[in-house]
Amino acid sequence: MTLNFSHLQSIGWTNYFMQQLSAQLSFDELTALHSDEEPTNQPYAVFRITAIHRDRIEAIGELGSSNLISTDLLCPPEFRPTSLFLAVGDWVLAERAEEHWRIKLVVEPKSRLQRLSVDQPQLIAANLDYLWIVTSANQDFNLKRLQRYLALALEANIEPVVILTKSDLCSEAELEEYLAQLKKLNCHLIHAISTLEGTGLDTLKTYLNSGTSIALVGSSGVGKSSLLNALAGTQQEVAGIREDDDKGKHTTTARQLFFIDSADEKAHGKVAVIDTPGMRELQLFNSQQGIEETFADIHSLAQDCRFSDCHHEQEPGCKVREALENGTIDPSDFNNYQKLLKEDEHIKRRDLGSHAERKHQRSFSKMVKTMNKEIW
């Protein structure tokens, strides 16, 4: 009996991952993967990562939920091989190790969402179809922060969906003003909802197709967990979610992938959903293309400037300055566009310098060892 990949399809497995896995394995490994052994006796198994802890990795596969082991978890993060950097949502091939499953390789992902955290790249989620960017119709609303999230999604080639929650807290005129602001974003999927009144939820359910993977991002308290509970139809026992002191507020304390039923009852499939902790501060990482797509109108104008290295200040023939002067583009958007590009460039230069310094230190250490051998 071979691995039942059709079962994995209900939790997001596609032909893309099968092709990537086949390309990463030797002939003998592929043969073992498709052996006639019963599932409980097979030497290999495919899993999807559902949670990552300091001492273990939770995953789900054909045989159900399991705790996977990886010797690299014992190493400090800076010494772990990049091939085993994991994100919730990743697919992995594991090999049987007595009573455990040990991660052998990470299947090449189709997308990976990442940000900069404490000067280190941090993986948020992998293999997503949609990124739901959640904000609320109150004081949390911040267009510049939403532009950062949008750049994050576009850089990872993930379809962004902007969701405005708590629409019941504002008047109709206020709601229209919020939506007018959101329409300035380079995103054509924008929805206003209220989990309290149930408005807008049916529209969101159209995204819940069998095998689809979705992650939710946004600040704490914007209603991500309440939204998921409303779509699931029940108050789920989701690890990492606790009730806060504030009325109607949930706080997610850890990234975790879980499954809700797809909207198509006949399909009997699941939708993979990743709820993330609130990220009020979001620093982008290697996101130039995502930034340029987020501000596509400004970037397009910049391509028509007379000088290719135009800084859009006082240079003659600057199309961006012309657009600013005639009101075609918003000065606030332009300032944020420049700010994000400068941040991204600063991070690139810093990382390049750090890499050169580490290379120099390794060369120096090697030279010292050689000299010591010659002396002694």
UniProtKB/TrEMBL annotation:
Enzyme class, spelled out: hydrolase
InterPro entries the record matches: G_CP_dom (IPR030378), P-loop_NTPase (IPR027417), Ribosome_biogen_GTPase_RsgA (IPR004881), RsgA_GTPase_dom (IPR010914)
Keywords, comma-separated and alphabetical: Cytoplasm, GTP-binding, Hydrolase, Metal-binding, Nucleotide-binding, Ribosome biogenesis, RNA-binding, rRNA-binding, Zinc
GO cellular component: cytoplasm
Ranges where the EngC GTPase domain occurs: 126-280
Enzyme Commission number(s) from the entry: 3.6.1.-
GO molecular function: GTP binding; GTPase activity; metal ion binding; rRNA binding
Chain positions recorded as Zn(2+) binding sites: C305, C310, H312, C318
Protein origin, superkingdom: Bacteria
Cofactor: how and how many bound: Binds 1 zinc ion per subunit.
Keyword Transcription regulation annotated: no
Gene3D superfamilies per the UniProt record, alphabetical: P-loop containing nucleotide triphosphate hydrolases, Probable gtpase engc, domain 3
Listed Pfam families: RsgA_GTPase
Subcellular location: Cytoplasm
GO BP, sorted A to Z: ribosomal small subunit biogenesis
CP-type G domain sequence ranges: 110-282
Cofactor(s) named in the record: Zn(2+)
Binding site residues for GTP: T165, K166, S167, D168, G218, S219, S220, G221, V222, G223, K224, S225, S226
Cited function: One of several proteins that assist in the late maturation steps of the functional core of the 30S ribosomal subunit. Helps release RbfA from mature subunits. May play a role in the assembly of ribosomal proteins into the subunit. Circularly permuted GTPase that catalyzes slow GTP hydrolysis, GTPase activity is stimulated by the 30S ribosomal subunit.
Summary of subunit composition and partner proteins: Monomer. Associates with 30S ribosomal subunit, binds 16S rRNA.
HAMAP family: GTPase_RsgA (MF_01820)
Family: Belongs to the TRAFAC class YlqF/YawG GTPase family. RsgA subfamily.
Xref: NCBIfam families: ribosome small subunit-dependent GTPase A
Name used for this protein in its record: Small ribosomal subunit biogenesis GTPase RsgA
Upper taxonomic lineage: Bacteria, Pseudomonadati, Pseudomonadota, Gammaproteobacteria, Oceanospirillales
